[in-house]
Amino acid sequence: MSHNSFGHLFRVTTWGESHGPALGCVVDGCPPGLLISAETIQQWLDRRRPGGSRFVTQRQEPDAVEILSGVFEDDRTNGLVTTGTPISLMIRNVDQRSKDYGDIRDRYRPGHADYVYDMKYGVRDYRGGGRSSARETAARVAAGAVARLVLPGVTIRGAMIQMGPHRIDRARWDWSAVDENPFFCPDPVAAKEWEVFLDGVRKEGSSIGAVLEVVAEGVPAGLGAPVYAKLDQDICSALMSINAVKGVEIGDGFASATLSGEDNADEMRLGANGQPVFLSNHAGGILGGISTGEPIVARFAIKPTSSILTHRRSISATGEEVDLRTKGRHDPCVGIRAVPVGEAMLACVLADHLLRHRAQTGRPGPADYPLHRA
Amino acid sequence: MSHNSFGHLFRVTTWGESHGPALGCVVDGCPPGLLISAETIQQWLDRRRPGGSRFVTQRQEPDAVEILSGVFEDDRTNGLVTTGTPISLMIRNVDQRSKDYGDIRDRYRPGHADYVYDMKYGVRDYRGGGRSSARETAARVAAGAVARLVLPGVTIRGAMIQMGPHRIDRARWDWSAVDENPFFCPDPVAAKEWEVFLDGVRKEGSSIGAVLEVVAEGVPAGLGAPVYAKLDQDICSALMSINAVKGVEIGDGFASATLSGEDNADEMRLGANGQPVFLSNHAGGILGGISTGEPIVARFAIKPTSSILTHRRSISATGEEVDLRTKGRHDPCVGIRAVPVGEAMLACVLADHLLRHRAQTGRPGPADYPLHRA
Amino acid sequence: MSHNSFGHLFRVTTWGESHGPALGCVVDGCPPGLLISAETIQQWLDRRRPGGSRFVTQRQEPDAVEILSGVFEDDRTNGLVTTGTPISLMIRNVDQRSKDYGDIRDRYRPGHADYVYDMKYGVRDYRGGGRSSARETAARVAAGAVARLVLPGVTIRGAMIQMGPHRIDRARWDWSAVDENPFFCPDPVAAKEWEVFLDGVRKEGSSIGAVLEVVAEGVPAGLGAPVYAKLDQDICSALMSINAVKGVEIGDGFASATLSGEDNADEMRLGANGQPVFLSNHAGGILGGISTGEPIVARFAIKPTSSILTHRRSISATGEEVDLRTKGRHDPCVGIRAVPVGEAMLACVLADHLLRHRAQTGRPGPADYPLHRA
Amino acid sequence: MSHNSFGHLFRVTTWGESHGPALGCVVDGCPPGLLISAETIQQWLDRRRPGGSRFVTQRQEPDAVEILSGVFEDDRTNGLVTTGTPISLMIRNVDQRSKDYGDIRDRYRPGHADYVYDMKYGVRDYRGGGRSSARETAARVAAGAVARLVLPGVTIRGAMIQMGPHRIDRARWDWSAVDENPFFCPDPVAAKEWEVFLDGVRKEGSSIGAVLEVVAEGVPAGLGAPVYAKLDQDICSALMSINAVKGVEIGDGFASATLSGEDNADEMRLGANGQPVFLSNHAGGILGGISTGEPIVARFAIKPTSSILTHRRSISATGEEVDLRTKGRHDPCVGIRAVPVGEAMLACVLADHLLRHRAQTGRPGPADYPLHRA
């Protein structure tokens, strides 16, 4: 089966191919009465939009979003508000150049989903990867923009922390640097080095992988569930659903394996205001599937772009061995554009869990169970 | 909300606390007509069962499974068969020793879900972690045993490949070694070293993390979906839902970040029988969310057991700062017992996707779309 | 596929056959902190229990419920409370007499699900109808008892309003009469007549259908949704899922077809307290899929018990034409025992929608949007 | 919560308001490789389209459908085929006349969802009923057109069988008459009478209810499930989700209540070809939640249009008592346009269950379990 929805209460369904007339999403379950505008959504789409630098595909897509439903402007309100009904968002495809893809109609590009599509569906839209094109992620970013409206007080940010073998120095982490280089890199020194590195990759017609980190601050304690709707599980699932992602971790992640119980356990104390304080955040803001109130930290690894200019061995749909290089306009490091996508997915998961939490407690935000003081 | 089901067509709902009368699961969606027996399920539970060595909790639980529904013995069949109706499996709790937990009734154990439970629910069953106890995983293993019945021809195996900082040598990988040491370690040399290492950890009252690997062989190409029911996404979600897991990766995983497009793409050729052959498996058997026919390889990192004998700083539910050490019977490396659990989760995901695939194609197994030969 | 769950946030999964060792349900999504006890659940089961009069099956089942999980007794609480985790309820089968069913092993009883089971599953548990036995409804009643805990202030009651061709006189409706006759009949005069009528049916070895009505009072306005989670839609689905139900209606139901727009529209005025008042309730408490605050009124029709002592023509699983009468212990009017089941299903749907509403508004009960006063 | 999806494997999500820029649906789960065209979908939309006669709203909507995704034209195929990915269908709103609705902005129209919308959402799009407008059903009809592609060999037809108090004579039932009168009436004599009757209703500015019947022929035995995905349950849920529906029944429906077990049970014999034959169809093609192979027969009652020209008492959102008549263009009998909608919903449910059945059996159509011949 094809399944194209995620989320339980804040549910997003995306649709559309890279080379069809349009793509979009339906956001179902957004609470009513939230101020919304196409401009708000557009600003997030613009962050993801290709064509911004020489390091991303040169395809020119304005990615202009249209809000087709679920909103209403009443003179009792200050502008457009959500009505609680499904919000349909559409983005027209503009710069498609389908002819670029004719020569791979019958050939399976290595590292791409071409072969498995044929195995699954028996028919595939070979233009630009069809449904598995990264263009689908524009719809995710639009949905994430709506999710952010459900999360006032929560800050969700992302960054690229490793390109190929080159990792940032976390001591130099500066969120303000993220928007000042073409890589969403929080380390200005690393960003300079990556520029040289990626120019080399690009000129060779090669590509390279990356590691990204997304962080949510301001998430209150108590979101999630202990067994199969774990907050970390749903975040991992959401990030893993992004194209080309091959690994996901929370907090110390794989490094936890090397820690002792003493080192790993985040100790607690009471803060100045008498509220619980964690003295470290190895857990990445989630214990037993439930948020602790500390920043939620997730990282995900993205493989190198599969479309490269080097010939690779493959086969054709007609049963011949072929050698194949992928022409066309592509990203030397698809990880770059995945930063806004990762943020959007994290926002959607948190919005969903906030609504789930409300269902349980009947309160606007997470539980505020007082400590059982004597 | 509490959610305790996973799977879309092969759906498992688990229930039960560590210290209640019983725990169990309902497996819904299992096809009819499959031979089943309590013994078949029991053998997998026995693999996971604590009490087997000095390296796992000394709690003595027979974990004897009862099949309460969904099966029928007819004289037209050779024994018990599934009927297509929900299979209810129950395991009685036997060795509970609730008094061990009285002293943490009002204290939040660091690294445990105690604090977040109170934040989420406002009430918690403090005996043994309640719902977030690793005992819940017995129900998963039972469900996984049923899932395996849906997957004839598929071999699902797991192993521990890293304990603390000590990684196996993959050149020495030997599946037959896995059952000959207390760690499910496929490297007999490493297993010897781990024994010494973990004895040290245990004697110090400390604990250590681990990395596990699960592999499914014989999975045909074509299972999964390109967007939100990606096979890798569902595997990650399932593995991440296991207690103490902090990271998951598929194929080359986080190492993909350092690869070039040329190195990462698995090339294809036609094999001796004219069928497609991949020349490598960096993808871990999944491309674009869909199985390739190569072995599916997933790894997951498990943090060290949070229950340790060293005092750690924490707070109480009554708002005081406390120092806390966890007495009781615990595992120095919970990762060990997670091997059968990881296998079970992988089996459940594959069974679910096999049924989804049938829905699409109307065929017993995955699509056998012939290559479009001239 | 077999599907055995209903509800979105308050989700019930039932399992168990008529002649297996036990049956039960898992109630997932029940909020934490609600007082609960086996006795509370048992009282509703006792209402449904067969063996109470000569008009229901003489099978003797104590239907004693065990709570296996999801509850906890803490000395800070006054007895057992829900913990927010799945509540597993089990009822052992006691009086099964499997041998009664041997002679229909290979024969399809007319009006029963025997034939379609074989067409769907290719294997069936022929003892007592297996999964399609009315015994499954005991699990529903147990779940409904939990649902009622979520709905303080809501009164849910049911009655039989027609037996065969004999309808009650609504002018004589008296809720207190319902528990004073073996038919849950609110009209004491009709109840007397039905007794004579049903004795005749029973002595002939025949059976008869019925119409039931369930009413929920105290449901606030605003529960439901305008399109595919309509409150009336979910109520109909829940009632239609009860064995032998062939029709469902809300408010004026089928009679609405004969009404003019003027007669059908429930007019509104402001009541003594300035709150909105409906002057009639043709809508049965639901407009556009959303509750109005008026009593919710649903009716459902139940066909006559299919097991009768008269020979009927049928076929065998081995392809022969046979004549068949069903021996064993059966109800001359299965509609009787469906009254507590209908109440339970209505309670489950309302609990589910209350939680959905909370998710949207973040308030314990339904929206209390003030009228937009000048 | 707002929920706007239905179906489990063949899943439809609709979006759009009466007076927004467009409405539409996403059909997810449609198998790949089915021939499809906008024209095929359009023909069903044209059947539902208002403006066809003086008996339906004079709103002029071309209801032209655009296929935005999920299809592909390859020169290996004879035209457009489904790809197995989500099919996004959009219909632009054209003739909206929003000013007609200004005067009910703050007033609750009796019989409409206006009041409950405010209670649920606290904000509403008052133009034309927003989401609860019957225009939403255009999206259902489009989805139903796709569902029919999944059901080759199944004929799904609908008819109006009662208008107000006037019921057809079933002895005169003639499917070919249905398209020859403005009422989808299968009885040509009744159709003539209804014309006179409805002209009277229309001229009075009043409205009237109706009863509709939908029938699916060619549905094989074995679709459905015995407990909570009963075929009849899902059909009832789907029909009940249509605007203004107040009752649903299957087969003999409410009349079953008056039948004896002997009369109600459909007897069986072997037909000329040795296949099972039912001698009657009181069950309406469904026993125990599973299809029997006989025609599936469902009826549903539709209340009179709530928009009428007579003044009715109501209240305003600002807390005043008002008298209200609804101007604008409306249907004197909304039941008429519900016939294609009922057909579409039945098609969607059957497509969903066919896919579910495939999942279980791994066969293209329903199980073909041979009778267990000696």
From TrEMBL, chains A, B, C, D:
SUPFAM superfamilies, from UniProt? Chorismate synthase, AroC
- EC number(s) from the headed UniProt entry: 4.2.3.5
Q: Report the domain of life of the source organism.
A: Bacteria
Q: Which InterPro entries match?
A: Chorismate_synth, Chorismate_synth_AroC_sf, Chorismate_synthase_CS
The entry's cellular-component GO terms read: cytosol
Task: Identify the residues that bind FMN.
Answer: 131-133, 243-244, 288, 303-307, 329
Q: Does the keyword Amino-acid biosynthesis apply?
A: yes
PROSITE patterns in the cross-refs: CHORISMATE_SYNTHASE_1 (PS00787), CHORISMATE_SYNTHASE_2 (PS00788), CHORISMATE_SYNTHASE_3 (PS00789)
List the Pfam families. Chorismate_synt
> Pathway membership of this protein?
Metabolic intermediate biosynthesis; chorismate biosynthesis; chorismate from D-erythrose 4-phosphate and phosphoenolpyruvate: step 7/7
Q: Which reaction does it catalyse?
A: 5-O-(1-carboxyvinyl)-3-phosphoshikimate = chorismate + phosphate
Cofactor(s) of this protein: FMNH2
What NCBIfam families does UniProt report for this protein, alphabetically?
Answer: aroC, PRK05382.1
Q: Protein name, please?
A: Chorismate synthase
